[in-house]
Design brief:
The complex is a heterodimer. Chain A contains 2 helices and 10 strands, in the order H-H-E-E-E-E-E-E-E-E-E-E. By secondary structure, chain A is mainly β. In chain A, about 50% of the residues are buried. Chain B has 2 helices and 24 strands. Chain B has an 8-stranded antiparallel beta sheet, with no helix packed on it. A 5-stranded antiparallel beta sheet of chain B has the order 4-3-7-1-10. In chain B, a hairpin with a 3-residue loop joins strand 17 and strand 18. Classes of the chains: A mainly beta, B mainly beta. Chains A and B meet through helix 2, strand 1, strand 7 and strand 9 of A and strand 2, strand 5, strand 8 and strand 9 of B.
Chain lengths: ~180, ~350
Amino acid sequence: MTGRMVARVGLGFFLWTLAQAGPVAAGPTDTPLPTFSDSKAAVSVYIAAGVIKNNNLETDVICTNIDTVPVDIGLEVFDETGALRNSIAAGSGAMLNVGVGKTVTVGTAGTAELHEDQVITLNAAGNATTVLRNGSGRVVATSKNLICTAAVVDKVHTVLDPATSSLPPPSLAQLQLVKLP
Amino acid sequence: MRLLTAILGLGATLGLVATAGAGITDTPLPTFSDGHAAQVVALVPGVIKSDAIETDVICTNLAPAAVDVGFEVFDVAGVRANRVSTGNGALLAVAPGRTVTIATGGTAVMHEDATIALEAPVTEIANGSARVVATDVRLACNAFTVDSLHTVESPNKCSTCKPPTLANLGLSYVAASPPPPPPPPSPCPATPRSGCRKPAGPGRAMVLLKDRTPDELDTLLWKWTGATPTAKADFGDPFTTTGYALCVYDHTGGTLTRRFGAAMPFGGTCGTRPCWKNTTTGYVYVDSARTPDGVAALTLHAAGSAGAKLILQGKGAHLPLSGLPLTTPVTVQLSSDNGPCWSADYSSPTLNNTGNFKAKSD
């Protein structure tokens, strides 16, 4: 068998292997659910398309615990390839033991205008960049009894009194969340 | 005569326009350039492509297979301004989990994967609408109107630079909401396997199920002691080929019906260690994260003269427990991939209510 034939057989086997492989878990629906660092398992509560961390725009998710017991709450973000870019198990994007009635904000970074309790550190998976141009997200928690909203926020501007400042206010837009049953 | 012809022609044209589908609800759905038919995913009011404002729609594929995604925009009169069928406003074969953006034009602050070129007679959309179409309705999307010119600059660098105008358009899903993703396939067959090994006698297998609120408190315990010798080789190779599933069936509707299953896949890493461990007499599976289905531990213990001993423990929200009480008799099986199974029947539970099922085997 010539070297070229071996290479062809090898390439054929490689392509066959790719064809046999099942879909890789990716994105907010089929990526396995995480476990919080206190060993409590998470369930999916909301999904968001359009999570952005790019060009000084960041994404904040604000959730209120409406359960009767404290819950762990986390925000998982995925880049445009569907790769999970933070680890709830490692505490990135997670708030543990959020009391009944309490509200917490998890953001892709700190912003000048809004308050964040926890910010996400992106890992090197997926596109391995430090931005989410075109991302998605998943709110996870130890209970489904949360209400959340999300916003895309300009991270550098604040609202200042126009009588004393000519600086413009920040860009701010709601991000529609999809509540999962 | 020429004037009459023109009038008749104009009248005929108007008549055609009047009867043609228009707008986001009654314009016929397109077919993508790869021949796949489109369905409506979501409707978007307030689409603008005018005065340096563009509209971006960002969608994530929640379906388990690749989908074609398109964004059709309509002007104030309901005239469609782009043809997805020619690729204008379409992205093909978007993989599961991926997120893409289609827009009426490029913007300085957002990222766009595809931009729409308005087609005649539409040259501007001051007051339009749109629909997201795709080959599968399982998409999650957001739509924004975006100032196409400005970017967000730090006021420390540019105190006169104004950030862009940005607003969410509040799209409406045509299905009540994006349909929830299908439940993962059960690791268990629809009906119990036949030919499974049986326990050594009455009471030599037990099962305990606790369905609690919150689900974190759900519990599963199954113990089984066999009647016939079992070799370690009967357990297969859990490191490379042999996964396991615990399957629970009851008599809902009068026939044996699968109620739930919990998988223990072969191989894998649980935390920082391999999920499976070799022992002198068999194998042990330990997963402190209890994924995918809530199983924390499984012990497979072979025995020469007496039968094998099998012990499975599960806990937490990943356990697919629901729908107690069960309809007796109940069958619980531990099934190995392409190998033996171990089964027990339970006709007389000591507990069988909305929160608990506890029984010793027949």
